[in-house]
Amino acid sequence: MYSKEEKKQLITDFWKGFGAYARAHNSDKQVGNPDLFRKTGIKGVELKFDLSALSVMVTIEINLRGEIGRQEKYERLCQYRVILEQDFVAGLVWDPQYVRESGQLVCRIYRRLDSVNFHNRDKWPEIFAFMATNGTLLRRNLMEIKDLITD
Prior knowledge:
The protein is α+β, with helices and mostly antiparallel strands. 46% of the residues lie in helices and 24% in strands. A five-stranded antiparallel sheet has the order 1-2-3-5-4.
């Protein structure tokens, strides 16, 4: 178990390491900066990285407060499923009722890498490669349809 300070340092080291990896291996510099990666310019739609002790996810998250608006935005994205899934041989997971750890209900479209723990520094190269590759593809595909789904 980590102390509060050790966990904070681990997270800081992880994101610095990922930023360096993304700059060195990736043409999309926004993927390496989680704050820039998050911003899509589409109301209620964010790109996110979700890290846990069991898996890592690269997600499109629809987090509008109202259920009707959230579902409408999700259905609009579903119309462009072929475009969003291009270059994802195994496809994406489409979850219209994803419950975050906080209990908040959102819609998510994502790729997940299982059986990796971001606390294990030995797994970081595998995690970084997964996040950079899938983050770049997901962002590019979403930006391709941005004008079609923006209110």
